[in-house]
Amino acid sequence: MLEVANLNVWYGVTEVLRDVSFEVPQGALVALLGGNGSGKTTIINTLSGMVTPRKGTVRFLGTEMAGRPSDAMVKAGIVQVPQGREVFANMSVRDNLDLGAATRTDRKGIRDDLEEMYGLFPRLRDKQTHKAGSLSGGEQQQVAVARALMSRPKLLLLDEPSVGLSPVLVDALIETIRLLHGRGLTMLLVEQNVGVAAAVAGQAYVLKDGEIAYRGPAPELIGNPEVLASYLGR
Ligand SMILES: Nc1ncnc2c1ncn2[C@@H]1O[C@H](COP(=O)(O)OP(=O)(O)O)[C@@H](O)[C@H]1O
Ligand SMILES: [Mg+2]
After folding, report:
1. Quick one: 72 and 168 in the same domain?
2. Which of 7, 11, 83, 231 has most ligand 1 atoms within 8 Å of CB, for mutation?
């Protein structure tokens, strides 16, 4: 579904991604791991059209997308849940979710999807009139995920969704990711939490200083002390 090849990204005079290549097959859940500053968010932002690569290709469903603007990426079906689970704090939960469907015109489909989101995240139904900023961190995470899903993504990009969540909420997050994966949603999951990645992902790539340093099955990672020590600093 997604084939990224030899991606190079520079911020000014600094090279932050060097010859990054990876694939996300249709229906797969691929993890992208790496320490702070290794370039994970830069990859996500390149895929969502917020960063323009200097070199390389991003093929999505057979179309070359590298350097296309954000709206083109969303239209193609690539949708990001941003790092830090940004929600529109002063808007209601319901308005946040409606915003996710802003590019759609199928009113019935939107209503059905809203119901589905409330089924998936019952807390959001209870709090649909509350300002999103008044919700707990875990609930805001749900708003951010639900908003992204409201646009009916073909590929969902999750940037460190477990950060700042308590162990109980991390477990709930893992369940949600598994559920979405089980429904056939293709996902690229960026994580520093190796446990989360190992619990849900198939293939994993490890990024170090802007380069892919390791690739292999995610569950193998957790049993590989060398990978953990040299690339993830654990
Ligand atoms: N807008 C920017 N301008 C300049 N440098 C940046 C910018 N954003 C990130 N960087 C740098 O690029 C590198 C990769 O950052 P990032 O992709 O955010 O890493 P990660 O998500 O893995 O923590 C880091 O060294 C970071 O300091
Ligand atoms: Mg990041």
Report:
1. yes
2. 11
Same domain, 203 and 180: yes
Query: Tell me, what's the pLDDT at 230?
Result: 67
CA distance 87 to 93: 9
Residue type, 133: G
Distance from residue 179's CA to the centre of ligand 1 (Å): 31
Taking 50 as the pLDDT cut, the residues of the chain under it are none
Q: Is the CB of 11 under 6 A from ligand 1?
A: yes
Domain that holds residue 121: 87-152
Residue pair 207/40 in contact (Cβ under 8 Å)? The answer is: yes
What's phi and psi for 140, nearest 5 deg? -65, -35
The CATH number covering residue 172 comes to 3.40.50.300
Q: What is the position in ligand 1's atom list of the atom closest to the CA of 39?
A: 17
Residue nearest to atom 16 of ligand 1 (CA): 39
pLDDT in tens, 131-148: 999 999 889 999 999 999
Residues 146 and 187 in one domain: no
Q: 167 and 67 in one domain? A: yes
Helix ranges (DSSP H) in 24-127 = 40-47, 70-76, 93-100, 107-120, 122-126
Look at residue 231 in the predicted model and tell me its pLDDT.
65
